[in-house]
Amino acid sequence: xxxxxxxxxxxxxxxxxxxxxxxxxxxxxxxxxxxxxxxxxxxxxxxxxxxxxxxxxxxxxxxxxxxxxxxxxxxxxxxxxxxxxxxxxxxxxxxxxxxxxxxxxxxxxxxxxxxxxxxxxxxxxxxxxxxxxxxxxxxxxxxxxxxxxxxxxxxxxxxxxxxxxxxxxxxxxxxxxxxxxxxxxxxxxxxxxxxxxxxxxxxxxxxxxxxxxxxxxxxxxxxxxxxxxxxxx
Length: 233
Hints:
Layout: H1 5-30, H2 40-49, H3 51-74, H4 84-114, H5 120-132, H6 134-163, H7 172-185, H8 188-211, H9 214-217
């Protein structure tokens, strides 16, 4: 079965997104690896000292999460038989995750602007009032739940790809490990490790999808099997 131009473009958009998204996340953490995360005051002072770096970090992180979650959702085009239910729910949760991470990073841009006010103490007081308000608490809770939904969406999409025998079953392990490390460690280093594991996973999935036949890409897995090295028994 020959590839059409449309299917080829769609596949390579997904393949590139699976690599580019996590890579942007790694870069976002790497450029500001020593940023404090123990208190709002420490974060605010860091934003005052390095405003451009903070904005760049938030921008790369926002785009990175949007790209990786959209690419994961796009990968479900190959799930029209085995794994389709898992992939469908995963795609929906991935889209919710995009909203959640956008909420989270929007606060970063707001705080970075306040950190540049001439009266530093007044800027911090405004930031503190903003972050501790009931509205901010509600938005933060909703954003956190949507972020969790996005992470669960990634796991479900990968599970669907495993169910369809397009990727090996062990690919779930580095993603789960990364989520756990980021949650337990709670530092920029922990986030970097999680993003590196996601990059390795996304790259492996991209290789598997890049090598699969058009029949496999369209969910017709029996039409042209994926090479044995990229599937599980």
